[in-house]
Amino acid sequence: MTDPTFPTMIDLAGVSKAFTLHAQGGVRLPVLDRVDFAVRAGECVALVGPSGAGKSTLMRLVYGNYRCTTGSIGIRHDDEVIDLAAASPRTILAIRRRTLGYVSQFLRVVPRVPTLEVVAEPLRMLGVDKAEAVDRARILLARLRVPERMWSLPPATFSGGEQQRVNVARGFAADYPILLLDEPTASLDAANRDTVVALINEARERGAAIVGIFHDAAVREAVATRTFDIEGVRAAA
Amino acid sequence: MNDTPLLQVEGLSKRFGRIAACDDIGFDLHDGEVLGIVGESGSGKTTLLRCLSALIAPDRGTVRYRMRDGSRRDVFALSEPERRLLMRTDWGFVHQNPRDGLRAHVSAGANVAERLMAVGARHYGEIRERATDWLARVEVDTARIDDAPRTFSGGMQQRVQIARNLVTHPRLVFMDEPTGGLDVSVQARLLDLLRGLTADLGLSAVIVTHDLAVARLLSHRLMVMRGGQVVEAGLTDQVLDDPQHPYTQLLVNSVLQP
Ligand SMILES: Nc1ncnc2c1ncn2[C@@H]1O[C@H](COP(=O)(O)OP(=O)(O)OP(=O)(O)O)[C@@H](O)[C@H]1O
Ligand SMILES: [Mg+2]
Q1: Which residues pair with B64 in a beta bridge?
Q2: For ligand 1, is residue A106 a contact (CB within 6 Å)?
Q3: b/e for A76-104, b at 16 or more Cβ within 10 A?
Q4: What single-letter DSSP state applies at residue A234?
Q5: B234–A23 C-beta distance less than 8 A
Q6: Confidence band of B185 (pLDDT split at 50, 70, 90)
Q7: Can you tell me the ipTM of this complex?
Q8: Mean pLDDT of A156-174
Q9: Considering only CA atoms, which of A227, A219, A156 is closest in space to residue A185?
Q10: Between 20 and 30 A from A210 (CA), which of A29, A199, B15, B190?
Q11: If residue A189 lies in a helix (H) or strand (E), which one and from where to where?
């Protein structure tokens, strides 16, 4: 299904992650052990494994949100492979702006910013003009059935499912070459789940490299081109 | 984007008697970057900010600034008039207490206009228009342009102070607890405003705050200070979500989801 001539977009080599909890007397909590993991353009890889195994941790490492203890995290950015583990904050931010999209499990709301702007913001940061960015935001919000009367309101007071749809819309606003999705359908009804499935498949077909965590087996079946079992790289506690 | 840092700080130290308020601090700040400085009170944040902005001289270390003409100058080696010009044109300083950054006896409009006149603006109509424009931009009712800031609420005074600083299009702004003494709803509004302004204007900024949520919202990068030293620095969300240093973990764990 995936084309071996498509470029590798994500390339983890020997990545380990342990947390040291200083408040607990410096106890060391190993989570991931020597992960080798590569994803090509046009692939959608589902991370699987039991709760607490380290799926979200792996995803946050790829986003540069967590720092790895050992190893390298290669990200193809503007036709160049950059190791996130060694990159400056400035470089990581540039990579996130143009290359790496991330739909977290929960929307982190900024007070007072209206929904339409929250969704359009990633495009605005790419220098897309306001009218075009807002048009794209409208299309996504409509597809995800967020009622139009809510678009001018900040999402702070929205329900969990509504916030999640705003979050998904924001993640799909810019056509990122790499998309990281942490349970993007978790609190959605069937119709919206189908929309998210369609969005994911469209992104993959245009050549995005996608890594996702999908608890819903039907969703996973519908979007994943293969799975990656975290159990195999789980650190012995 | 320019690859030479706008501000380059090396080995900055400042003692007050036996207390090391800043101990061997160094970092680079690039165009459009917002650096947050967090840490408990007394950790040296304000002293660092005052050294960076040449308000006080450090005992050791250098602060190099890239001028508009591209030359890089040690700010402590500038002549007094050069330094004053820099402070009036290229730099802004937003104080925690608006009273330290505003002139109490002149109107809000004049407070903003004064900065413009200091950089040579002379045409009255134009100065007034730009002052009005900026007051509107920071959401101060322009009908109150002729009122003195002391008749304004704390949040409004803070916004006038911001307008006064930004009207000359500085490239670098120092802020010391800009949302400090304000209540929560006023704070949110101000934060939102600051976030929008720094992004739209491509401002570089150094923001001191003890509030991690403020730091997360406004800054790209974070420096955590304790006892005059930087104990941890990096991308803001990395430092807050995966803190490495015991002190940073303590800070993050002592608040509700920053
Ligand atoms: N910032 C952190 N600090 C300390 N420990 C952490 C941190 N983030 C994750 N962990 C620990 O790492 C382990 C893996 O967590 P992670 O969230 O990656 O699991 P998961 O596979 O995504 O689980 P779930 O399916 O429940 O979402 C857990 O033991 C968790 O407590
Ligand atoms: Mg998880």
Answers
A1: B8, B74
A2: no
A3: bbeeeebebbebebbbbbbbbbbbbbbbb
A4: B
A5: no
A6: confident
A7: 0.92
A8: 94
A9: A219
A10: A29
A11: none
In angstroms, rounded to a whole number, what is the distance separating the alpha carbons of residues A93 and A107?
Answer: 19
Cα of A194 vs centre of ligand 2, distance in Å, is: 21
Q: Are B35 and B205 in contact (CB under 8 A)?
A: yes
For the CA of B242, the closest atom of ligand 1 is: 1
Q: Are strands B229-235 and B91-94 parallel, antiparallel or unpaired?
A: unpaired
| Nearest CA among A167, A185, A178 for reference residue A222 | A185
| Predicted local distance difference test score (pLDDT) of residue B196 | 82
A24 lines ligand 1 (CB under 6 A): no
Do the Cβ atoms of B33 and A90 come within 8 Å? yes
Question: pLDDT tens for residues B79-120?
Answer: 999 998 898 889 999 998 888 999 988 999 999 999 999 888
Tokens matching residue A50:
């039991």
Number of CB atoms found within 10 A of residue A226's CB: 11
Q: How far apart are CA B57 and CA A81, in angstroms?
A: 43
A70 φψ region: left (φ > 0), alpha (ψ -120 to 50), beta (else): beta
Q: Of chain B residues 173-212, which have a CB less than 8 A from chain A? A: 188-189, 191-192, 195
